[in-house]
Specification:
With 358 residues, the chain is of the alpha/beta class. The protein has 2 domains: 186 residues, Glycogen Phosphorylase B (Rossmann fold); 165 residues, 3-Layer(aba) Sandwich (Rossmann fold). It is built from 13 helices and 15 strands. It has a 9-stranded mixed β-sheet with strand order 1-4-5-3-2-6-7-8-9, with helices on both faces. Strands 12-11-10-13-14-15 form a 6-stranded parallel β-sheet, with helices on both faces. Helix 1 packs across helix 13 and helix 7 packs across helix 11. It is globular and about 60 Å long. The two termini are 32 Å apart. Pfam families: Glyco_trans_1_4 (PF13692). This is Glycosyltransferase family 1 protein.
């Protein structure tokens, strides 16, 4: 990717996406969908402000000819609309796509033919969330033409608040995770870790049950617990430390299958709290692509969709049992699940709904 320069903006975009997640952060739902939607739409992704209000240069990335990432050089979210109106040549666009209600003020400055709210998380329940998010979401729901949700629990919550809601749970790129992990050279950081490995990748934040991780590692000193991903909204001092817990940092989306292939078990040690009440983890299907036995706490959407093939746990004793005596005959169930979904199918269905509304 190259940097976005002042002359790099298109004269017109088909879709403006407003996203609270950085494009070059963990590769997840927004990147999967936007990359595929860009086959039909010329897209500008607007991230949260980065400050430096005195800068006269645009900041951002050129992902491709049809995907530009803009990082507003302003200080406040409520200034995003005015900033965009100043730098964009048009103020009317076919599609406005929101991942966060915090961007709602832009509707006072820009007009959209279709407004989409792709609700992938209940952001108001996250640690450090702005108290204004609840009211901002009410405004966004009143303005949106269609609402997509990232899981069944979110769908049940939003369908009571909007007339046109579709459930599009997280999907998967099977080819990426089935093939890439087999053919790449191992990196030293995981090659040196003793087997068996129980591994996790993703953001390490308040959604992870750190006590469960620590107690499980202490109960199974012969098992290596590997945590891959950036640490967010918690400090290094909050992380449990043990000889058999390894933190490998953030890896690229390209690298993930290589690491996943080295796991003997894949885990989702989520805490059961407000921030995980509505989650539908993308990594569930990615783990399945690699045929790994999965160990997970009892997240609502995981329990009701995958209880027949995932080892569900509540504490370190359950964790020990899942490692010693995992479910058998789970691989054929994985295959049936994976055959029914892909990010390509999801993006195509979303695009079709937009075209029908327009």
């Amino acid at each position: 990717m190259k940097l976005l320069k002042n002359t790099g903006l298109h004269s017109h975009y088909d879709m403006i996406v407003f996203c609270h997640l950085r494009w070059d952060f963990v590769y997840q739902r927004p990147q999967h969908l936007i990359s595929r939607l860009s086959k039909d739409f010329k897209i500008l992704v607007v991230e949260e402000p980065i400050g430096r209000a005195d800068s006269k240069e645009l900041e951002g990335l050129v992902v491709s000819d049809s995907i530009h990432i803009l990082q507003p050089t302003i200080d406040q979210m409520q200034e995003v609309g005015a900033f965009l109106k100043k730098i964009l040549k048009a103020q009317i666009f076919p599609v406005g796509w929101f991942y966060s209600p915090a961007f709602i003020e832009v509707l006072n400055y820009l007009d959209f033919g279709v407004i989409v709210y792709d609700c992938m998380d209940e952001l108001s329940l996250f640690k450090g969330a702005s108290p204004e998010l609840i009211e901002q979401e009410k405004y966004l729901l009143s303005a949106a033409d269609v609402v997509y949700t990232g899981g069944k629990s979110l769908y049940e919550a939003k369908k009571e608040k909007h007339h046109n809601v579709y459930c599009f749970p997280s999907s998967v790129d099977r080819e990426h995770f089935e093939s890439n992990g087999q053919n790449s050279q191992l990196t030293a950081d995981i090659e040196s870790i003793p087997k068996p490995i129980v591994g996790y990748y993703g953001v390490i934040d308040e959604r992870i049950d750190l006590d469960l991780l620590e107690m499980s590692a202490l109960k199974m000193p012969e098992v290596s617990f590997v945590m891959i991903g950036p640490i967010c909204k918690i400090g290094e001092e909050d992380l449990p430390r043990a000889k058999n817990i390894f933190y490998l940092g953030m890896k690229t989306y390209t690298e993930l299958p290589v690491y996943l292939n080295e796991f003997d078990f894949a885990m989702m040690p989520f805490a059961l709290n407000d921030s995980t009440k509505f989650i539908s983890p993308t990594k569930t299907l990615e783990y399945m692509c690699a045929d790994k036995p999965i160990i997970s706490t009892k997240i609502k959407d995981v329990v009701r969709d995958y209880s027949n093939c995932i080892n569900l746990i509540e504490d370190e004793s359950d964790f020990h049992t899942a490692v010693m005596h995992p479910k058998n005959d789970y691989k054929h169930i994985y295959q049936k699940i994976l055959e029914q979904t892909s990010w390509d199918i999801t993006a195509s269905k979303m695009s079709q709904i937009i075209k029908e509304i327009a």
